[in-house]
Amino acid sequence: TTMKYGAKNRLVGTVREIKRGGIMAQVDLDTHGEASLSSVLTLDALDDLDIKEGDQLKILVKAVNVILVKE
Predict the structure, then answer these.
(1) Which of 17, 36, 41, 68 is the most exposed place for a label (fewest CB within 10 A)?
(2) What share of the chain is helix, strand, coil (3-state, %, to 5)?
(3) Is the Cβ–Cβ distance between 63 and 37 less than 8 Å?
(4) For 18-44, what is each residue's pLDDT tens digit?
């Protein structure tokens, strides 16, 4: 079956680095363009998804707030 989702902002990226903490992990991704993104998730979720450095992932962005700053 195909997973359905409501997020319209979709990218593909490669896991560059995983930083593990006591409960949470930060996953840094390169999007094969000019952007890089980070995602924070629980260690349980990271292990359940079996995410490893070098993996190619779909990235879905559904943000409540996006703040732009021009200095």
Answers:
(1) 68
(2) 10, 45, 45
(3) no
(4) 999 999 999 999 998 878 889 999 999
